[in-house]
## 1
Amino acid sequence: MLETLPIASWTGPYAPEVKARAVEALENGGVLFFPNLPFQLSEKEKSFLDAGVSDGKAKNISRDPDGTLQSTSLTGKRAQALGAMMGRFADSTSSLIGDLLPYREIERARTSYRPVQVKGRSQSKISDDRLLHIDAFPSRPMRGRRILRFFANVAPSSPRHWHVGQPFEDFAKSFLPRIGPDLPGKSWLYEKLGVTRGRRSRYDELMLSLHDTAKLDDNFQKNSPHQKVDFPPGCCWLVFTDMVLHAALGGEFALEQTFHLDIDQMAEPARAPIKVLERLSGKALA
Ligand SMILES: [Fe+2]
């Protein structure tokens, strides 16, 4: 499940054997683990290791690709410096992915900084990422495109605790029969009302239902097979979060970069969640 890669540089070239292992593990629902790849903060940037840089409302500080920063309490030069750190992370992860993986067309989406301790946060079950889930976002229809996320633990001393669950296909097989049909006209209405950016496909509705049903199922949360993983300070990991069941149970100070890609970029598109769900349901979903 954890594929450890000995990479110690944010830029390639990387050995062909390492590249082959990376894409195979990633598309197969593994987590690429980079134990020797710290994302270094400058002395100045270390002052951002403080939960107070968050505005206290959102879980994460986010930076759009155009540089717009949201949900930070910082202003002026300090906000600019935080944005620059996040931008550097975005550049570093883009360069690594470009050199490591065969995805020629990949969209760089948001960067997030997670400065608040995960443990002890109170929130609704649906938005509680301490529960096992696959990523699916209500306002961002993917219509089958993939969500690839690069994480770095930049905490000085605390590991980031994750649980990683069963394979996607096993999960989908047990949950699909519990999901009802879509309400006719719902995705059209949501688009018109501006609830979603673009129209949700049947795939998006299914993924959201899988996300919610799994989080609300106490028995599944307690008893479904999962592995505990501790990501130590100074490491990184990369994972298709739309396919790998994951939960973040503890830790503070993580950076995350999201990428989106069409399934025709994959070495094996048949492994994409949309293809798995279409096969299991016998329906076209996008
Ligand atoms: Fe997630």
Note: The longest helix spans residues 76-100.
## 2
Amino acid sequence: MGGMLVSIRDLTLRLPSGGRTLSVLDGVSLDVDAGEAVAVAGPSGSGKSTLLGLVAGLDAPTSGTIVVAGVEVTRLGEAALARFRREMLGYVFQSYHLIPTLTAAENVAVPFDLAGTAGATARTADLLASVGLGDRGHHYPVQLSGGEQQRVAVARAMALDPPLLLADEPTGNLDSATGGAIIDLLFALNRDRGTTLLLVTHDEALAERADRVVSLRDGRIAGERRRAGALAP
Ligand SMILES: Nc1ncnc2c1ncn2[C@@H]1O[C@H](COP(=O)(O)OP(=O)(O)OP(=O)(O)O)[C@@H](O)[C@H]1O
Ligand SMILES: [Mg+2]
């Protein structure tokens, strides 16, 4: 733990919108320490998903910088970006994004296949067991409940043990009990492996577990609160 993992400075994204310019993000600055769990809250359309997407290099900002583990994401070319994502990031989406034609085990193994990692079968089995799905590896996504699919998605995101896990409303499609299991899983990764979490959420139960909650409004940071008992930097 310790040290800054993510440093976002003056991040601005403007998009043309019906003859006008829409400021989706407007001068956002945010630092996240290694090992920290930060939740991003805010109303619909405030720019939360856009912020996560920029951190992952899925989109390029109009101005500003994002540095992750010393790498300026905003300056990477396609090949370097692909490598950055593979080595540094796990990404979990609200709607799971599993590949429907692959079994649960094959979905979890995708990052190993892309990275050309040996011994993927045993590690895939370990990952599935760690999310409580050790006996479901042969099932296709359609044969799994929403919560089970999301557990597969978390296992896949953790396959290469990334230092940073980005999650965009990971419990947004789940009932509170099922969402609770996903929350436990994410914070177990944070606690046991020191995985840094940057989580977008409307879910109070999820936000409550974070060290810090940053609120966005109209593309700007509107406020920040720190969990009682969380260590100050
Ligand atoms: N590619 C795009 N083209 C046009 N507008 C966009 C684009 N991407 C995002 N926006 C706009 O930027 C704003 C922020 O979108 P974003 O998806 O980041 O919001 P959000 O905070 O994640 O909302 P929600 O809680 O509904 O998921 C919205 O008004 C959205 O319509
Ligand atoms: Mg969103």
Note: Residues 107 and 181 are 20 Å apart (CA to CA).
